[in-house]
Amino acid sequence: MAVLSRIAAVGFILAIPIFLLTTNVRFLASDTSFYERGFRKYDAAEATGVALPDLDRAAGELVAYFENDALTLRIIVTQDGQEVSLYNSRETAHMQDVKSLMRVVYRLNEVSLAFILAYVTAVFLWSGERPMRTLALQAMAGVGVGAVALLALGAFALAGFDQAWTKFHELVFNNDLWRLNPATDHLIQMFPERFWEEATVIVAVLTGAEALAIVAASLAYLVFSRRARTEAARDAGTGTRAVRPASR
User: I need a surface site. Which of 15, 20, 113, 138 has the fewest CB within 10 A?
Assistant: First the structure.
């Protein structure tokens, strides 16, 4: 049982940074307003020759594609007065790979959340096996693991986002379909590298803010519980006995 308990504790510590990161990636990937703002900020309509209303609609269809069971992404837009497919065959093939990656992110998000809830409920609330102070310490350890990982990635990215972005694609994809032509391929025209650099910063900031909130809550509980235990011990050591009335 002791070994299983340690394994569960390690799983809880690792689940915290995984849950925070995948939650923020999932949130941003599902936020059509972020896509729409990016289209305007990076002049996607001019780059693609597709009107903004069509691009905005495409954003909604992209989000739906990540969440539905369709194998191929097919978005029809109007360009030069004709209805055409927004993406060519190479782009749609790459989007199948992206969808597979997003499915992994979504599953990790769900599994990490389920594990955190199960661990807190079964180990701490239901069985009372360990004090809540241990939970607070483990939560901070999880944040620490995530911080180390983010710092390592940040140090790698300092060498240049373009190099880090290229290395990321080389690691997660087993083909070169992601190598698109900015002059002809709508996918990279709609989502240039600057768009993904901004998205990475937003995910990092959100994850950092959530991690700080966990640390603050954990520290507050540790300080409060320690103070409460100290006061209880002091009261027990200096307690007074009740005075009985004199017998007649």
Answer: 113
